[in-house]
Amino acid sequence: MDTVSLIRKKRDGHELSTEEIRFLVEGFSAGEIPDYQMSSFAMAIFFKGMTDRETADLTMAMVESGEQVDLSKINGIKVDKHSTGGVGDTTTLTLVPLVAAAGVPVAKLSGRGLGHTGGTIDKLDAIQGFSTELDIEEFIQLVNNSKVAVVGQTANLTPADKKLYALRDVTGTVDSIPLIASSIMSKKIASGADAIVLDVKTGDGAFMKEEADAIKLAEAMVAIGKQVGRKTIAVISDMSQPLGYAIGNAVEVKEAIDTLKGEGPEDLHELGLVLGSQMLILAGRAKTTEEARSLLEGVVKDGSALAKFREFIKGQHGNAEIVDQPELLPQPAEKIQVLAEKSGFVQRILAEEVGLCAMKLGAGRETKDDVIDYAVGIVLHKKVGDSVSDKETIATLYVNEKENLDEVMSRLHQAIQIGSEKVQTSALIRCIIT
Ligand code: URA
Ligand code: CA
Fold first, then answer.
1. Whose CA is nearest to atom 8 of ligand 1?
2. Is-contact 383 345, C-beta < 8 A?
């Protein structure tokens, strides 16, 4: 096999065999195929696409390029959940104890945030003492004992994907469905999940702004799951405005606690129930969504989801007192109110811009090496469709450094658009792809 003829074959729109794809990924991983040839191959995929079979082969070749987490010592069917990334997406924090309280083991590997999107590991790091770097034995033992543990992705998971993503990032080949789908799924499969629930976001704050693209991506990932024997379901959900009210780290931990008490934002609560129901079904814990939903509603009502959150924090060496005393979470020097400049109805809350504002306050990373301030962030007081009076508080900024404050204020005023007509809100759950 030679690399140039394989690049040509894809360039001319032909299907590559399993062996040919493996040859390219292994050669690239080993440093035998140079970056310029792999970039050219990625561009050929960008233009010619891949069949479901090719995409699954690419996924598995990347899975096999590194370590694979063996979760076989955990009893039961392990279901993972993955979000394609959003703003104020507090879902994992609420979902993990919720599902575990309903009796399904959750052994989750999560990532950190970059740019306008936040990451679960950063949010958990806002809890004093919480360790997201457990060794694999402790991780497995925790899941067997208390049904739940969440750790950061190890360095050696899917190195071929990491290397290829870095190339795609600088060669205009990120936004190709087979490349994105294989990249995401390779990490989930290498993490050891038996079944996967995907939360594919669409709208302003999402990676896939258009719903049709989000559906295509979801279908490609579900098809990979089918090909490689890991049951996969995708929920397409709205990210045209931030999820819940809180955007940041400590503020999102607080929002998760409220939600587990049944006192959180409606959208966050609902998305948790929808994703959680799919997880319960894949794990064989419930037969129908109605049955699953009622189980999940039950563990919120009777307090066992909240108790599970305490147990989860304690298990990973964090201070579980924050559940009953959220004021123990990192607090900012100042809370500054953002006031409406006119009366009317909220027309839009531009999610990406709000995420960037939170990042500017220090809640997120502009570059990989930035240090996060866990105490800062934004708490919105309104959702799209709500009425607003002039000078009413529409958001509270949690601030330590005032350096970017003027810029954030003015950008946030632009991002929270107020007009005279009451608008329809977009549906939170668009569809489910199986
Ligand atoms: N997220 C990933 O993990 N990979 C992609 O290619 C795009 C988004
Ligand atoms: Ca939120």
1. 180
2. no
